[in-house]
Hints:
- This protein is mainly α.
- It has 2 domains: 2-396, Up-down Bundle (Growth Hormone, Chain: A), CATH 1.20.1250; 404-433, no CATH class.
- It has 16 helices and 2 strands.
- It has helices spanning 8-39, 43-68, 74-91, 98-126, 130-146, 150-158, 167-183, 199-211, 214-244, 249-276, 279-303, 310-328, 331-336, 344-373, 375-396, 417-421; strands spanning 404-408, 429-433.
- The protein has a two-stranded antiparallel sheet.
- The longest helix has 32 residues, at 8-39.
- Mean pLDDT is 82; it is low at 192-196.
- It comes from Luteimonas salinilitoris.
- It is a multi-pass membrane protein.
Amino acid sequence: MLAILRHRTFRHLFLAQTVALVGTGLATVALALLAYDLAGDDAGEVLGTALAIKMAVYVLLAPVSGALVPPRLRKCVLIALDLVRAAAALMLPFVDTLWQVYLLIALLQSASACFTPLFQSLIPEILPDERDYTRALSLSRLAYDLESLLSPMLAAVLLMVISFHGLFAGTSAGFVLSALLVLGTVFPAVEAAHGRGHPYERALRGMRIYLRTPRLRGLLAINLVAAAGGAMVFVNTVVIVRSALGGGDRDVAWAFAAFGFGSMAVALLLPRLLDRIPDRRVMLAAAVTMASALLVATVLWNGARAAIGWATLLPLWVILGMAYAGLVTPGGRLLRRSARSDDLPFLFAAQFSLSHACWLLCYPLAGWVGARFGLGTALLALSVVALSGLVFAWTTWPRRESAVLPHRHDDLPTDHPHWREYPAETDGVHAHEYFIDALHERWPR
Protein backbone atom coordinates (compact mmCIF):
# COMPACT_ATOMS: atom_id res chain seq x y z
CA MET A 1 0.00 0.00 0.00
CA LEU A 2 2.85 2.42 0.80
CA ALA A 3 4.24 1.88 -2.70
CA ILE A 4 1.61 4.32 -3.97
CA LEU A 5 3.61 7.10 -2.30
CA ARG A 6 6.17 6.75 -5.11
CA HIS A 7 3.75 8.86 -7.13
CA ARG A 8 5.07 12.34 -6.41
CA THR A 9 1.84 14.31 -6.87
CA PHE A 10 -0.18 11.96 -4.71
CA ARG A 11 2.59 11.95 -2.09
CA HIS A 12 2.47 15.74 -1.76
CA LEU A 13 -1.32 15.81 -1.53
CA PHE A 14 -1.33 12.93 0.96
CA LEU A 15 1.17 14.74 3.19
CA ALA A 16 -0.92 17.92 2.96
CA GLN A 17 -4.00 15.96 3.98
CA THR A 18 -2.14 14.23 6.82
CA VAL A 19 -0.74 17.34 8.49
CA ALA A 20 -4.09 19.12 8.20
CA LEU A 21 -5.86 16.15 9.79
CA VAL A 22 -3.34 15.91 12.63
CA GLY A 23 -4.16 19.52 13.40
CA THR A 24 -7.88 18.81 13.09
CA GLY A 25 -7.49 15.92 15.52
CA LEU A 26 -5.90 18.23 18.07
CA ALA A 27 -8.85 20.57 17.60
CA THR A 28 -11.31 17.70 18.16
CA VAL A 29 -9.83 17.01 21.59
CA ALA A 30 -9.48 20.71 22.40
CA LEU A 31 -13.06 21.47 21.34
CA ALA A 32 -14.42 18.67 23.53
CA LEU A 33 -12.47 20.00 26.52
CA LEU A 34 -13.48 23.59 25.73
CA ALA A 35 -17.14 22.50 25.65
CA TYR A 36 -16.76 20.80 29.04
CA ASP A 37 -15.00 23.90 30.38
CA LEU A 38 -17.87 26.16 29.25
CA ALA A 39 -20.85 23.85 29.89
CA GLY A 40 -19.80 21.08 32.31
CA ASP A 41 -22.07 18.02 32.13
CA ASP A 42 -23.97 19.67 29.26
CA ALA A 43 -20.86 19.47 27.08
CA GLY A 44 -22.54 16.81 24.93
CA GLU A 45 -25.27 19.27 23.99
CA VAL A 46 -22.69 21.95 23.14
CA LEU A 47 -20.65 19.52 21.04
CA GLY A 48 -23.80 18.22 19.38
CA THR A 49 -24.72 21.77 18.36
CA ALA A 50 -21.21 22.67 17.17
CA LEU A 51 -20.92 19.49 15.12
CA ALA A 52 -24.46 19.90 13.76
CA ILE A 53 -23.39 23.35 12.49
CA LYS A 54 -20.40 21.66 10.87
CA MET A 55 -22.63 19.13 9.12
CA ALA A 56 -25.15 21.78 8.02
CA VAL A 57 -22.52 23.80 6.17
CA TYR A 58 -21.10 20.59 4.68
CA VAL A 59 -24.51 19.63 3.32
CA LEU A 60 -25.17 23.09 1.88
CA LEU A 61 -21.73 23.98 0.49
CA ALA A 62 -20.07 20.71 -0.55
CA PRO A 63 -22.14 20.01 -3.70
CA VAL A 64 -21.60 23.57 -4.97
CA SER A 65 -17.84 23.67 -4.38
CA GLY A 66 -17.04 21.11 -7.04
CA ALA A 67 -19.27 22.86 -9.56
CA LEU A 68 -18.05 26.40 -8.93
CA VAL A 69 -14.28 25.92 -9.00
CA PRO A 70 -12.77 25.38 -12.48
CA PRO A 71 -9.75 23.01 -12.69
CA ARG A 72 -7.27 25.84 -13.35
CA LEU A 73 -8.17 27.52 -10.03
CA ARG A 74 -8.27 24.45 -7.79
CA LYS A 75 -4.75 24.95 -6.46
CA CYS A 76 -5.28 28.61 -5.49
CA VAL A 77 -8.65 27.83 -3.91
CA LEU A 78 -7.26 24.92 -1.83
CA ILE A 79 -4.45 27.13 -0.48
CA ALA A 80 -6.86 29.95 0.37
CA LEU A 81 -9.21 27.55 2.17
CA ASP A 82 -6.34 26.17 4.26
CA LEU A 83 -5.38 29.70 5.33
CA VAL A 84 -8.99 30.51 6.30
CA ARG A 85 -9.09 27.37 8.44
CA ALA A 86 -5.79 28.31 10.06
CA ALA A 87 -7.08 31.76 11.01
CA ALA A 88 -10.33 30.40 12.47
CA ALA A 89 -8.52 27.78 14.56
CA LEU A 90 -6.11 30.40 15.89
CA MET A 91 -9.04 32.47 17.25
CA LEU A 92 -10.76 29.60 19.10
CA PRO A 93 -8.58 29.77 22.26
CA PHE A 94 -9.81 33.33 22.90
CA VAL A 95 -13.56 32.61 23.00
CA ASP A 96 -15.45 32.80 26.26
CA THR A 97 -19.08 32.38 25.16
CA LEU A 98 -20.86 29.64 23.25
CA TRP A 99 -22.04 31.83 20.36
CA GLN A 100 -18.42 32.66 19.55
CA VAL A 101 -17.59 28.94 19.44
CA TYR A 102 -20.49 28.30 17.07
CA LEU A 103 -19.51 31.22 14.80
CA LEU A 104 -15.87 30.16 14.45
CA ILE A 105 -16.84 26.51 13.92
CA ALA A 106 -19.19 27.63 11.13
CA LEU A 107 -16.35 29.58 9.47
CA LEU A 108 -13.76 26.81 9.82
CA GLN A 109 -16.09 24.07 8.63
CA SER A 110 -17.40 26.14 5.71
CA ALA A 111 -13.83 26.20 4.42
CA SER A 112 -13.48 22.46 5.04
CA ALA A 113 -16.76 21.79 3.24
CA CYS A 114 -15.30 23.37 0.11
CA PHE A 115 -11.79 21.93 0.56
CA THR A 116 -12.52 18.21 0.97
CA PRO A 117 -14.58 17.51 -2.21
CA LEU A 118 -12.03 19.38 -4.32
CA PHE A 119 -9.22 17.36 -2.74
CA GLN A 120 -11.04 14.02 -3.15
CA SER A 121 -11.90 14.66 -6.79
CA LEU A 122 -8.18 15.01 -7.61
CA ILE A 123 -7.26 11.45 -6.57
CA PRO A 124 -8.95 9.52 -9.42
CA GLU A 125 -7.42 11.96 -11.90
CA ILE A 126 -3.95 11.40 -10.47
CA LEU A 127 -4.35 7.60 -10.15
CA PRO A 128 -6.53 6.24 -12.99
CA ASP A 129 -5.68 2.57 -12.26
CA GLU A 130 -8.30 1.06 -9.92
CA ARG A 131 -5.82 -0.98 -7.87
CA ASP A 132 -3.70 2.13 -7.27
CA TYR A 133 -6.82 4.13 -6.51
CA THR A 134 -8.01 1.51 -3.99
CA ARG A 135 -4.69 1.67 -2.17
CA ALA A 136 -4.76 5.45 -2.24
CA LEU A 137 -8.21 5.39 -0.66
CA SER A 138 -7.02 3.13 2.15
CA LEU A 139 -3.98 5.31 2.71
CA SER A 140 -6.26 8.34 2.72
CA ARG A 141 -8.43 6.51 5.27
CA LEU A 142 -5.36 6.03 7.44
CA ALA A 143 -4.75 9.76 7.27
CA TYR A 144 -8.28 10.38 8.50
CA ASP A 145 -7.63 7.94 11.33
CA LEU A 146 -4.71 10.08 12.47
CA GLU A 147 -7.42 12.50 13.58
CA SER A 148 -8.75 9.89 16.04
CA LEU A 149 -5.54 7.99 16.90
CA LEU A 150 -2.20 9.81 16.67
CA SER A 151 -3.69 13.26 17.27
CA PRO A 152 -5.30 12.28 20.60
CA MET A 153 -2.05 10.57 21.62
CA LEU A 154 -0.12 13.70 20.73
CA ALA A 155 -2.75 15.75 22.57
CA ALA A 156 -2.34 13.57 25.67
CA VAL A 157 1.42 14.24 25.64
CA LEU A 158 1.02 17.98 24.99
CA LEU A 159 -1.53 18.33 27.78
CA MET A 160 1.17 17.34 30.25
CA VAL A 161 2.93 20.66 29.59
CA ILE A 162 0.30 23.04 28.15
CA SER A 163 -3.40 23.77 28.59
CA PHE A 164 -5.90 22.55 26.03
CA HIS A 165 -6.09 26.08 24.57
CA GLY A 166 -2.60 25.56 23.15
CA LEU A 167 -3.83 22.65 21.04
CA PHE A 168 -5.65 25.08 18.77
CA ALA A 169 -2.27 26.56 17.80
CA GLY A 170 -1.23 23.11 16.60
CA THR A 171 -4.37 22.97 14.49
CA SER A 172 -3.54 26.29 12.86
CA ALA A 173 0.04 25.19 12.16
CA GLY A 174 -1.26 22.03 10.48
CA PHE A 175 -3.41 24.02 8.08
CA VAL A 176 -0.54 26.40 7.23
CA LEU A 177 1.80 23.48 6.48
CA SER A 178 -0.95 21.87 4.36
CA ALA A 179 -1.20 25.07 2.31
CA LEU A 180 2.57 25.06 1.74
CA LEU A 181 2.51 21.44 0.55
CA VAL A 182 -0.36 22.16 -1.85
CA LEU A 183 1.63 25.15 -3.13
CA GLY A 184 4.51 22.82 -4.03
CA THR A 185 2.30 20.26 -5.81
CA VAL A 186 1.96 20.01 -9.60
CA PHE A 187 -1.73 19.49 -10.36
CA PRO A 188 -2.86 17.32 -13.31
CA ALA A 189 -3.82 19.17 -16.48
CA VAL A 190 -7.54 18.49 -16.88
CA GLU A 191 -9.88 20.25 -19.23
CA ALA A 192 -12.92 21.89 -17.67
CA ALA A 193 -15.56 19.17 -17.39
CA HIS A 194 -18.26 21.21 -15.78
CA GLY A 195 -20.36 21.62 -18.90
CA ARG A 196 -22.88 24.34 -19.47
CA GLY A 197 -25.58 25.56 -17.19
CA HIS A 198 -25.89 27.13 -13.78
CA PRO A 199 -23.47 25.87 -11.08
CA TYR A 200 -26.37 24.62 -8.95
CA GLU A 201 -27.67 22.66 -11.94
CA ARG A 202 -24.25 21.06 -12.35
CA ALA A 203 -24.13 20.35 -8.62
CA LEU A 204 -27.53 18.63 -8.72
CA ARG A 205 -26.20 16.37 -11.48
CA GLY A 206 -24.11 14.54 -8.88
CA MET A 207 -27.14 14.20 -6.61
CA ARG A 208 -29.21 12.68 -9.44
CA ILE A 209 -26.50 10.17 -10.30
CA TYR A 210 -26.10 9.24 -6.66
CA LEU A 211 -29.75 8.77 -5.77
CA ARG A 212 -30.65 6.92 -8.98
CA THR A 213 -27.84 4.35 -8.71
CA PRO A 214 -28.90 1.37 -6.51
CA ARG A 215 -25.45 0.62 -5.07
CA LEU A 216 -25.05 4.27 -4.09
CA ARG A 217 -28.42 4.33 -2.33
CA GLY A 218 -27.07 1.38 -0.35
CA LEU A 219 -23.90 3.40 0.30
CA LEU A 220 -26.00 6.24 1.70
CA ALA A 221 -27.59 3.83 4.17
CA ILE A 222 -24.11 2.56 5.10
CA ASN A 223 -23.10 6.17 5.76
CA LEU A 224 -26.03 6.42 8.18
CA VAL A 225 -24.75 3.41 10.14
CA ALA A 226 -21.26 4.94 10.29
CA ALA A 227 -22.66 8.27 11.49
CA ALA A 228 -24.66 6.59 14.27
CA GLY A 229 -21.58 4.97 15.79
CA GLY A 230 -19.20 7.84 15.08
CA ALA A 231 -21.53 10.45 16.60
CA MET A 232 -21.70 8.52 19.86
CA VAL A 233 -17.91 8.46 20.08
CA PHE A 234 -17.16 12.03 18.99
CA VAL A 235 -19.90 13.73 21.03
CA ASN A 236 -20.16 11.75 24.25
CA THR A 237 -16.65 10.43 24.92
CA VAL A 238 -15.79 13.55 26.96
CA VAL A 239 -18.99 13.23 29.00
CA ILE A 240 -18.47 9.51 29.71
CA VAL A 241 -14.80 9.89 30.64
CA ARG A 242 -15.07 13.09 32.69
CA SER A 243 -18.45 12.55 34.41
CA ALA A 244 -19.07 8.78 34.51
CA LEU A 245 -15.49 7.54 34.88
CA GLY A 246 -14.00 10.56 36.66
CA GLY A 247 -11.11 10.86 34.19
CA GLY A 248 -9.11 13.92 33.22
CA ASP A 249 -8.17 15.69 29.99
CA ARG A 250 -5.52 13.13 29.00
CA ASP A 251 -7.94 10.26 29.61
CA VAL A 252 -10.34 11.82 27.10
CA ALA A 253 -7.54 11.85 24.53
CA TRP A 254 -6.71 8.17 25.16
CA ALA A 255 -10.36 7.16 24.78
CA PHE A 256 -10.47 8.84 21.37
CA ALA A 257 -7.23 7.03 20.50
CA ALA A 258 -8.84 3.63 21.21
CA PHE A 259 -11.44 4.33 18.53
CA GLY A 260 -8.72 5.39 16.10
CA PHE A 261 -6.63 2.29 16.84
CA GLY A 262 -9.48 -0.01 15.80
CA SER A 263 -10.13 2.02 12.67
CA MET A 264 -6.48 2.06 11.61
CA ALA A 265 -6.04 -1.69 12.18
CA VAL A 266 -8.88 -2.49 9.76
CA ALA A 267 -7.82 0.15 7.23
CA LEU A 268 -4.43 -1.59 6.95
CA LEU A 269 -6.12 -4.90 6.11
CA LEU A 270 -8.75 -3.63 3.70
CA PRO A 271 -6.75 -3.31 0.42
CA ARG A 272 -5.97 -7.04 0.26
CA LEU A 273 -9.37 -7.94 1.66
CA LEU A 274 -11.20 -5.96 -1.03
CA ASP A 275 -9.15 -7.71 -3.72
CA ARG A 276 -10.79 -10.99 -2.66
CA ILE A 277 -14.18 -10.08 -1.17
CA PRO A 278 -16.87 -7.87 -2.77
CA ASP A 279 -17.37 -4.38 -1.35
CA ARG A 280 -20.98 -5.16 -0.46
CA ARG A 281 -20.08 -8.10 1.77
CA VAL A 282 -17.33 -6.19 3.58
CA MET A 283 -19.44 -3.10 4.20
CA LEU A 284 -22.53 -5.01 5.34
CA ALA A 285 -20.40 -7.05 7.76
CA ALA A 286 -19.04 -3.79 9.17
CA ALA A 287 -22.62 -2.45 9.47
CA VAL A 288 -23.68 -5.53 11.43
CA THR A 289 -20.66 -5.04 13.74
CA MET A 290 -21.43 -1.35 14.28
CA ALA A 291 -25.10 -1.93 15.07
CA SER A 292 -24.26 -4.85 17.40
CA ALA A 293 -21.67 -2.81 19.32
CA LEU A 294 -24.16 0.03 19.82
CA LEU A 295 -26.78 -2.43 21.08
CA VAL A 296 -24.28 -3.94 23.54
CA ALA A 297 -23.39 -0.46 24.80
CA THR A 298 -27.11 0.34 25.18
CA VAL A 299 -27.78 -2.80 27.21
CA LEU A 300 -24.76 -2.21 29.43
CA TRP A 301 -25.58 1.46 30.09
CA ASN A 302 -29.29 0.90 30.76
CA GLY A 303 -29.12 -2.47 32.52
CA ALA A 304 -25.67 -2.90 34.05
CA ARG A 305 -24.29 0.59 34.72
CA ALA A 306 -21.89 -0.81 37.32
CA ALA A 307 -20.15 -2.77 34.55
CA ILE A 308 -19.21 0.45 32.72
CA GLY A 309 -15.53 1.12 33.25
CA TRP A 310 -12.28 1.41 31.35
CA ALA A 311 -12.23 -2.36 30.74
CA THR A 312 -15.60 -1.99 29.01
CA LEU A 313 -15.28 1.37 27.30
CA LEU A 314 -11.95 0.87 25.54
CA PRO A 315 -12.78 -2.49 23.86
CA LEU A 316 -16.15 -1.12 22.73
CA TRP A 317 -14.50 1.98 21.26
CA VAL A 318 -11.94 -0.22 19.46
CA ILE A 319 -14.74 -2.33 17.93
CA LEU A 320 -16.66 0.77 16.89
CA GLY A 321 -13.49 2.09 15.24
CA MET A 322 -12.96 -1.19 13.37
CA ALA A 323 -16.52 -1.15 12.07
CA TYR A 324 -16.23 2.51 11.13
CA ALA A 325 -13.23 1.89 8.86
CA GLY A 326 -15.00 -1.02 7.17
CA LEU A 327 -18.02 1.21 6.50
CA VAL A 328 -16.33 4.30 5.08
CA THR A 329 -13.12 3.15 3.36
CA PRO A 330 -14.56 1.30 0.31
CA GLY A 331 -17.03 4.09 -0.52
CA GLY A 332 -14.70 5.82 -2.99
CA ARG A 333 -14.42 2.62 -5.05
CA LEU A 334 -18.19 2.53 -5.48
CA LEU A 335 -18.30 6.17 -6.53
CA ARG A 336 -15.55 5.68 -9.09
CA ARG A 337 -17.43 2.76 -10.68
CA SER A 338 -20.72 4.65 -10.79
CA ALA A 339 -20.09 7.66 -13.07
CA ARG A 340 -18.18 8.81 -16.12
CA SER A 341 -14.93 10.64 -15.40
CA ASP A 342 -16.48 14.02 -16.28
CA ASP A 343 -19.11 13.55 -13.58
CA LEU A 344 -16.80 12.27 -10.83
CA PRO A 345 -16.20 15.69 -9.17
CA PHE A 346 -19.96 16.20 -8.84
CA LEU A 347 -20.49 12.66 -7.57
CA PHE A 348 -17.78 13.06 -4.91
CA ALA A 349 -19.37 16.33 -3.85
CA ALA A 350 -22.78 14.63 -3.63
CA GLN A 351 -21.31 11.85 -1.47
CA PHE A 352 -19.68 14.41 0.78
CA SER A 353 -22.94 16.31 1.17
CA LEU A 354 -25.32 13.36 1.57
CA SER A 355 -23.06 11.46 3.95
CA HIS A 356 -22.81 14.52 6.16
CA ALA A 357 -26.59 14.84 6.12
CA CYS A 358 -26.49 11.52 8.00
CA TRP A 359 -24.16 13.09 10.55
CA LEU A 360 -26.48 16.10 10.78
CA LEU A 361 -29.15 13.70 12.01
CA CYS A 362 -26.93 11.71 14.37
CA TYR A 363 -24.96 14.49 16.07
CA PRO A 364 -28.05 16.10 17.65
CA LEU A 365 -29.32 12.65 18.65
CA ALA A 366 -26.05 11.95 20.43
CA GLY A 367 -25.69 15.44 21.96
CA TRP A 368 -29.12 16.90 22.63
CA VAL A 369 -30.89 13.64 23.49
CA GLY A 370 -27.94 12.55 25.65
CA ALA A 371 -27.92 15.85 27.58
CA ARG A 372 -31.69 16.06 28.10
CA PHE A 373 -32.78 12.43 28.44
CA GLY A 374 -29.57 10.62 29.38
CA LEU A 375 -26.91 8.69 27.49
CA GLY A 376 -28.97 5.50 27.69
CA THR A 377 -31.72 7.08 25.61
CA ALA A 378 -29.18 8.49 23.15
CA LEU A 379 -27.58 5.07 22.76
CA LEU A 380 -30.97 3.48 22.13
CA ALA A 381 -31.86 6.09 19.50
CA LEU A 382 -28.52 5.67 17.71
CA SER A 383 -28.89 1.88 17.79
CA VAL A 384 -32.27 2.19 16.07
CA VAL A 385 -30.75 4.48 13.43
CA ALA A 386 -27.89 2.02 12.80
CA LEU A 387 -30.25 -0.94 12.49
CA SER A 388 -32.48 1.01 10.09
CA GLY A 389 -29.49 1.85 7.89
CA LEU A 390 -28.33 -1.77 7.93
CA VAL A 391 -31.74 -3.07 6.82
CA PHE A 392 -32.09 -0.45 4.08
CA ALA A 393 -28.59 -1.14 2.71
CA TRP A 394 -29.17 -4.90 2.77
CA THR A 395 -32.40 -4.62 0.78
CA THR A 396 -31.43 -1.77 -1.58
CA TRP A 397 -27.93 -2.74 -2.70
CA PRO A 398 -28.23 -5.57 -5.30
CA ARG A 399 -26.40 -8.77 -4.43
CA ARG A 400 -25.27 -9.32 -8.00
CA GLU A 401 -24.06 -6.39 -10.07
CA SER A 402 -22.85 -6.11 -13.65
CA ALA A 403 -21.20 -3.11 -15.23
CA VAL A 404 -22.77 -3.91 -18.62
CA LEU A 405 -26.58 -3.73 -18.54
CA PRO A 406 -29.12 -4.36 -21.34
CA HIS A 407 -31.65 -1.56 -21.76
CA ARG A 408 -33.88 0.26 -24.24
CA HIS A 409 -34.12 3.82 -25.62
CA ASP A 410 -37.69 4.12 -26.83
CA ASP A 411 -37.52 7.91 -27.22
CA LEU A 412 -34.10 8.11 -28.94
CA PRO A 413 -34.03 8.92 -32.69
CA THR A 414 -32.76 6.10 -34.90
CA ASP A 415 -29.97 8.32 -36.26
CA HIS A 416 -28.66 9.31 -32.85
CA PRO A 417 -24.84 8.82 -32.46
CA HIS A 418 -25.46 6.63 -29.41
CA TRP A 419 -26.88 3.90 -31.68
CA ARG A 420 -23.78 4.02 -33.88
CA GLU A 421 -21.53 3.65 -30.86
CA TYR A 422 -23.60 0.82 -29.36
CA PRO A 423 -25.79 -0.81 -32.07
CA ALA A 424 -29.17 -2.20 -31.06
CA GLU A 425 -29.63 -5.95 -30.81
CA THR A 426 -32.98 -7.73 -30.47
CA ASP A 427 -36.17 -5.61 -30.13
CA GLY A 428 -34.26 -2.34 -29.82
CA VAL A 429 -32.28 -3.50 -26.77
CA HIS A 430 -28.57 -2.88 -26.50
CA ALA A 431 -25.99 -3.24 -23.73
CA HIS A 432 -22.94 -1.31 -22.55
CA GLU A 433 -21.32 -0.06 -19.35
CA TYR A 434 -24.17 1.77 -17.66
CA PHE A 435 -24.07 5.12 -15.86
CA ILE A 436 -26.76 7.64 -15.01
CA ASP A 437 -26.36 10.55 -17.46
CA ALA A 438 -28.35 12.65 -19.93
CA LEU A 439 -29.20 9.60 -22.06
CA HIS A 440 -29.72 7.20 -19.15
CA GLU A 441 -31.82 8.94 -16.53
CA ARG A 442 -33.19 5.83 -14.78
CA TRP A 443 -31.59 2.57 -13.71
CA PRO A 444 -32.86 -0.33 -15.88
CA ARG A 445 -35.02 -2.89 -14.14
